[in-house]
Model the fold of this input.
Amino acid sequence: MLTLRLYMLQRITALVMAPLVLLHLGVMIYAIQGGLSAEEILGRTQGSALWFAIYATFTLSIAIHGAIGLRAIAAEWGGFRGYGLEALMWVTGAFLLGLGLRAVWAVTYGAAP
Amino acid sequence: MPVKTHQVTIVRSSDAATEFEVPAHDNQTVLDVVSWIQQYADPTLSYRFACRVGMCGSCAMTVNGVPRWTCRTHISKVLQDGAVEIGPLRNLPVVKDLTVDMDPFFDKWIAAEGVHHESRTRHDDIAPIDASDPARVEASAGIECINCAVCYAACDTVTANDSYLGPAALQRGWTLLNDAKDAGHDAILEAVSGTGGCHNCHSMGSCTALCPNELDPMSAIAGLKRETAKSFFKRRR
Ligand code: SF4
Ligand code: SF4
Ligand code: FES
Done:
């Protein structure tokens, strides 16, 4: 149930995600040296346009990549077709994007706790 | 001396007999076994074959769960404890017993633009073909397809996705795309980029592993993925 367009979107988002996953893991390992606290994390991210840009891009790629992947699984294993399949893909994508962006916003430009 | 026999189970569409004891012979093929049953045990058994030498592609069946060309498959190779189960090809509607309806297979062949797209008229010279040209090598690689649908029956993606064009049709698209005598380049790329197109292939290779002519539809499909990806960026410019 994949068209060229969906295929390309999934491949391109995979390319975007590959270095970001490494960065994400790297920062995690670096950040937990000597304990982990909310202050420390927020101190790094709050008001940072760079972290916002990185994680917003990451979130967008994940939402697109994941929704298309789930679409293929739902079609081949769940028998989804037509509007049901389209709806599942868009709802999944929107859900992941909403959840992700909300978190990214909260740790960068959201009101301090 | 008792005659050596094979225990044969036939998967049938009616409730006719399914168990047969077939006399064993040297160099006996699966098709010989099926023919013996039809001729000496049950004349109502339906099956299909024509050439018996691996040319026509009409004799494919599921043998012990695996799609095979039966006229070139020795029974001795597939027997398990002297027994074998023979059924119709998977992924195609059964007409009767071992005979399947090949229409969906050939309809998809055409849907993948596996048809001739003329590039010259009768008044032009014949296009010169250089056998060592890389595109020609790609085209020649898939040209010996006998339309047996073994790969189509082997493909789990066909099972899961009824619109998927399948390995044989997509391979023919790739063959024509690389053929200097065929003018269907854009039409083929368009045809293999839709919901049932080449991008649905999971590259697991059952098609390539089981093609009786040792063709490689999986790599042909990978070629289509590459070409369509290139055209994706070109079209956007
Ligand atoms: S490699 Fe592709 S075409 Fe071949 S069997 Fe697997 S999914 Fe089907
Ligand atoms: S590619 Fe091979 S298995 Fe598939 S139809 Fe052609 S000859 Fe048969
Ligand atoms: S009968 Fe023709 S290929 Fe088997």
